[in-house]
Amino acid sequence: MSSFSKGLTKVEAGLKWDPAPTGSPAHDLDLVCAVYSASDPTGTPAYLVHFGSRSPDGTITLNRDSKTGQGFGYDEVMTLELDRLNEDYVRVVLGVAIQQTHGDLTFGETFNAAVRLREGHTDLAHFDFTAAPRCTAAVLAELTRDGTRTWQLRPVFKGFELDPTAFALAMGAVV
User: Fold this and answer.
1) In angstroms, rounded to a whole number, what is the distance separating the alpha carbons of residues 8 and 152?
2) Running DSSP on this structure, what letter comes out for residue 7?
3) Which residues of 105-135 are buried (b: 16+ CB within 10 A; e: fewer)?
4) Residue pLDDT, tens place only, 91-108
């Protein structure tokens, strides 16, 4: 029996958090996306998308990058155009990493941090970081496609106590 489901086509991830207290170094949280090919779906990412970068074909872009959390609503936004992603790519892992140049910062020390995943006006998942107060990074969701090219979302929340570089390498492990 065939399905009428078109799956996901264009997903938006929004990240928000409150600014650091006055006199403290800025809190810089970043959305990170790892894309995996069919030949290595859980190993080394084919590429990463994060601040200062986008996917080679422009299908995944960081539209807004905040270094402070100042602003209204979702300060950092990433768009994933899954329907345009090359068919060699079968898995996308979305996460958040803390970029802190002045000492170590954990999610427990940030205020009101949250992520929203949506397609159009439909919310697909929402996360806060209260379950990972000692962590510095977290995997939020895994998007996969099957042989029919239909993309599906699996919300995941797994915290890591890793720096951003180590997190980028570890985030694709089977979650």
Assistant:
1) 6
2) -
3) bbbebbeebebbbbbeeeebbebebeebeeb
4) 999 999 998 766 689 999
